[in-house]
Amino acid sequence: MVRGITGFELLIAGMMFTFVILIVGLLPAVYVKRKLDHETIFEYRCNKVQHLLLTLFSITYDERKVSESIAEHYLINKPDNLNFLKPYLDREMENKCYHIAVHNKTMFSTGSCDVKCRTNTTLVLPYNLNKLVTEIMVDVG
Amino acid sequence: MKGVSVILLVIIAILAVITVMGIYLFAISANVEGMRRSIIEREVVAEINKLEFLKRNLHQALDYSFYQATYNISRCGGYDGPEDVSNTRKNYWSNYPGWLYWRICESPNYRALPPATENIPEWRVHLKTFFPDIVEALNKTGQKIFNEYLESLRETTENVSIPNYIFKEINISNTHLNILAVNTSGESIILEKRNIGNLRNLTISDNSTLTEKVKTTFGSLVNFGRDNFVTHDSIGKAIMNTASDAGFMPSGSVTLCGRPPTPDEVFICTHTPRSSVCPVCQYNCDDEPMTISKAEGILKEPILASIKKLESDLSTGGFKVELLTDQKTNFIFLDCHSYTVGCCLECHSENSCCSNACGISCCEHMWKTDCNFYYYGAARVVVNITDTTTAYSVYDYDEKLTDLKNLQLKFYVFPGTLENISPVNP
Hints:
The complex is a heterodimer.
Chain A: H1 7-56, E1 60-61, E2 64-65, H2 66-76, H3 86-92, E3 98-102, E4 105-109, E5 117-124, E6 133-140
Chain B: H1 6-75, H2 82-95, E1 103-104, E2 107-110, E3 122-125, E4 128-129, H3 134-156, E5 160-161, E6 165-172, E7 176-183, E8 189-194, E9 201-206, E10 210-215, H4 218-231, H5 234-245, E11 253-257, H6 292-314, E12 319-325, E13 331-342, E14 368-378, E15 381-396, E16 401-414
Helix pairs in contact in B: 1-3, 5-6
């Protein structure tokens, strides 16, 4: 007499089968979803960087536009430094990982941290005979 | 033994897996769709931000354009540049040839006013004032510089068409320039981006005007210069006071007994004549007659000193005033406006031949000469007013670099101590 599959063994086999099929079938899907979630967070952070740069172009300090202070610091090194911006930047970027540069001159840097998002735009400089505009870049981690 | 069919179990398992996968895949699909929309939204927001950055850059370009324009105009005495100064000078010199000359005692002794050659204009030529059209100069210079900024922005901003702007209004106050710039021909800033998700093409246009309040003390500086040297002739007043203090009367009538004065002789007069019968000037006959060159020698240094003192008197409120006189072009002169010749007064003695207070015999040539003297001193003065309160990032064409500079207003003044003399042919 042939012994049949018991109910318990069948249950185990079914569960194993289901588990394997789920893993094989859903693993790629899970991978894709994780990537999408990562991209969503990335996009949110990049939007925040754009917002940060836009705010730098809109605010004033000591009755002067911050963007003008940045442009003059780049071109003629006056003011001597832009430390007055640091508390504001630290408040906006909670992870305190950012790097602001104008052309190839660093304005602000919190040191080495992995850059995850970059945004840039044009910056108008004081009148001179070489170039009237240049690029300002903001990197955040 | 009766049991569950294996095939049935496999079918149930497959259905279960498909169901679970379906639910999960549906969730992922919804997530993907949301992500796709988010990417499109991000690109649209990025393009809108690009437009916002551009508008802020236009405002900053306006600021720098007018910082530079006010700097250039101030150093050119309120004109756009050396060519405008030269054209204006040619225009009014050709219309007023009399300004070039003055006469001494109706004699054909002309002394030409040394023409100004530097690229700074005259704001006052004696009694005539020439205050420039500052708003026109600002418009012209500001427009040229702003157009350069527009060109640079066009080259560096992709997918955006930037129109031309003209300045519809420029209002000057002591602390600001209020600028209203409008785009010409109804053009707008237009952003065009193709192939954004299923939006295909994105077009955003903005035809708003640019209004900017440029913080500058240019207005205050120009008003200071105008008040002290155009509306009021500070240098002329200082010179007249000096001449008066030195005993040179502004005008006087004197009767001379004796020979007629030679054209270059003048006499210092006092209020009280020495004799009521034959009033003469306080004139020592043994002395050499006072000549113009001698009088100039007396007056020149005190006048130059009074101009120097005026510098410190006027340097207030953050404005540093320098009054520069060119030794080669300084001149100080005494003008005999007119004189008439007549007979001498009565002789003092019983004889027909008598002598006057100077011992000159009345039997000889008897002259009564009335001279109206106008004593003036003048110098060509370069007025240099520096606003030490604020510095601006501007390009200096002499130093050939951009740096923080104070506004510096420069112009010529010929003090108004000369009476308007009608033109004569030399």
